[in-house]
Each structure stands twice: as structure tokens, then as C-alpha cells.
Design brief:
Layout lengths: L1 H18 L4 E5 L5 H19 L3 E5 L3 H9 L5 E3 L2 H9 L4 E9 L6 E2 L1 E6 L11 E4 L5 H13 L6 E4 L3 H9 L5 E5 H9 L8 E6 L3 E2 L2 E5 L4 H12 L3 H6 L4 E6 L6 H10 L2
Parallel strand pairs: 1-2, 1-3, 7-8, 7-9
Antiparallel strand pairs: 3-12, 4-12, 4-13, 5-11, 6-9, 6-10
Helix pairs in contact: 2-8, 3-4
């Protein structure tokens, strides 16, 4: 009898040891400092750990490169990448895949659009004849994406200027300093909400494909069951938990690798 009891106890110990899982590591980039990031993300980490039935440890990386390296070399299982950071990581050999993409709080969209806008009564039938205002050569929506479109369309700019900011570009077209301005769609929405622009005052001359927000990505080797569980947890995440991480996001929708093709095109244009 004692032998049977000892055998049962041994099996329980062995079974427990075999089924015990190591913690998953979730790597992020802090918005301010590591201590603040840990506090902001604590509710989400607790929510995900409970939902997965497995401990999740938060790893606060020092920079974008550190996030990519942690995922590339298997030191992390889950990551919140920047859009360009995800594309660069994959192109440099990381076997990762995005599960969801963040929704911006102000617009309710999983991304934003680059726009070319003009006053509503401007004749935009011949863009070659118009003057253009851009934000900065480093701005994706305020220069790079619109420049790709103009180049592909064979438009030769008559005159161009750089306003330095999205708000300044909007004001440049509003005040007639330029005929067309390149801006981000969310900045136009803000200008309308704040009364800088009136409804119907400007029109959209061109709109880019959606430029996606930050993805939550995982190691491709993660089990499909865990991927599905994580995806469901993000999709069903209470809004207050998302808002607590202070990234100006309010939720998530599904994403895949093709979601980030617009980023690849932009990076090719910039020669990155």
C-alpha cells in the first residue's frame, strides 16, 4: 500500500514538473522611463497572464533595436513593435508575425492616411501647375508617402515648400500660401475638431493606403493555440486596460504580415 502511495506521489510530482510552463516574455519600448512603463503596463500584463493561464514577464527594452534583437534571438515571445521596427526585424531574419494592430483613440482606425489636401474651390485637375506644401523630408505622411504617389503619377512639382509641422502645412493651404498640402489624416481631424478648419473648407486630392499603427507580434514558432488565445485576449481587452498603457490607443484589430506592406513600400522609397 505504501509503495502504491509513493508511486502516486512520484507521478504527481513528475506530472507537475512536466506541465509547468516557463513565463512568456513581452518586450516593449518605454514611452518615458522603465519604471513608468512597468506601472502603465501592469494591468495589461496581469490581464494577459490570467487569460493565458501562464505568467507573462514584461521586458522594457532600451530602444527599437533591442526589441528586434530580443525577438530575433528568442529572448522574447511577444513584442510591441513600431511599424518600421517590425518590418526591419522580419527583413533581418526574425521569424515573427503580427497578431493585432492598435487602434488610435482619436480616429478609431488601426492606422492613418497620408493626404494631399486643397481648398475646396481649388482647381486640382492639373497638379503640375500647383504649388505644394510638405511637412518635413522625414515625415511619412507629410512627405514620403505623397512623394511616392507624385513620382509614380509623373507629377513635376512647380514649387514646393516645407512647413515644418502638420499644423503649419494645414495653415499654409488654408491661407493660400500653397495650393496643396501633404498632411496626416488624424491631423486634419484634429484641425476640424479644434476649429482651425471648417467643415467643407478643404477637399482631399489624394489619399494613401492605410499606414498601419504599431503591431503586437509573436514568435512564429508559438503554438497556434497560444496565438489564437492571445489574439482573442487583445481583441476583447477592456478599453480601460488599453488606455492605461498611455500610447494613445483604445483597442486592437486583427493584423497579418501583409498589413505592413505600405511600410515596406515607404522604406524602399527612403532607401532603408
Amino acid at each position: 500500500m505504501k509503495r502504491i502511495v509513493l508511486l502516486l506521489l512520484l507521478l504527481i510530482v513528475l506530472f507537475s514538473g512536466c506541465t509547468k510552463k516557463d513565463a512568456l516574455v513581452f518586450v516593449i519600448i518605454p514611452s518615458e522611463d522603465a519604471a513608468m512603463a512597468r506601472d502603465q503596463w501592469s494591468s495589461m500584463i496581469e490581464y494577459l497572464s490570467d487569460g493565458m493561464g501562464q505568467e507573462i514577464d514584461l521586458l522594457v527594452a532600451s530602444d527599437y533595436t533591442a526589441v528586434a534583437e530580443a525577438m530575433r534571438y528568442g529572448h522574447a515571445d511577444i513584442a510591441r513593435f513600431s511599424p518600421a521596427g517590425y518590418v526591419m526585424a522580419v527583413e533581418e531574419g526574425a521569424d515573427n508575425e503580427p497578431l493585432v494592430v492598435a487602434i488610435k483613440k482619436e480616429t478609431g482606425l488601426p492606422g492613418y492616411y497620408a493626404l494631399l489636401v486643397a481648398l475646396a474651390d481649388t482647381d486640382t485637375s492639373d497638379l503640375n501647375a500647383l504649388t505644394f506644401g510638405f511637412v518635413d523630408v522625414g515625415s511619412t505622411s507629410g512627405y514620403v508617402a505623397p512623394s511616392i504617389y507624385l513620382q509614380d503619377a509623373g507629377i513635376t512639382l512647380k514649387n514646393e515648400m516645407f512647413a515644418g509641422s502638420h499644423n503649419a502645412a494645414i495653415l499654409a493651404v488654408k491661407n493660400g500660401s500653397v495650393d496643396v498640402a501633404a498632411v496626416a489624416s488624424n491631423r486634419v481631424a484634429t484641425a476640424l475638431a479644434e476649429g482651425v478648419l471648417s467643415e467643407g473648407e478643404i477637399k482631399t486630392v489624394w489619399q494613401s493606403p492605410l499606414i498601419p499603427n504599431c503591431p503586437i507580434a509573436v514568435q512564429s514558432a508559438m503554438s497556434q493555440r497560444d496565438k489564437d488565445t492571445l489574439t482573442a485576449l487583445f481583441l476583447d481587452m477592456p478599453k480601460e486596460i488599453v488606455l492605461a498603457i498611455a500610447t494613445n490607443e483604445s483597442g486592437y484589430v486583427k493584423a497579418n504580415d501583409a498589413t505592413y506592406d505600405p511600410i515596406r513600400e515607404i522604406m524602399r522609397y527612403k532607401g532603408e
